[in-house]
Amino acid sequence: MDQGRSDDEPSLVRPYTLTAGRTDSRVELPLEAPVGAVAPAQPPQWPGNDVRGQILAMCAERPSVAEIAAHLSLPLGVARVLVGDLVVQGYLRVHTTLGGAATADERRELIGRTLRGLRAL
């Protein structure tokens, strides 16, 4: 354990190690899709600072995949794989973005959120 390292310092773990080298998500994950937490059948057994737990905590606010990547300073591909894994495991649900009945304000808000997430990357 590195006692000189604080939780605010960036991790030196290579992003691909978080996905075991995988680059494809198991589920369809548009960058702008809102992702929400689901009450799992079994609670996760991860260490307190595990990135999957951080993603679950963020998903109470239903962020997009791009926002998750930006907030956690993860490459977009890594975030997509991790979110996809959590969806398959039953911890997260991908919500539809907008249907045909979406208002102009809803569309503008979605575009704005997506752009903010992408800029933060």
TrEMBL record:
Domain of life of the native organism: Bacteria
Name the UniProt record assigns to this protein: DUF742 domain-containing protein
The organism of origin for this protein: Mycolicibacterium vanbaalenii
Highest classification ranks of the organism: Bacteria, Bacillati, Actinomycetota, Actinomycetes, Mycobacteriales
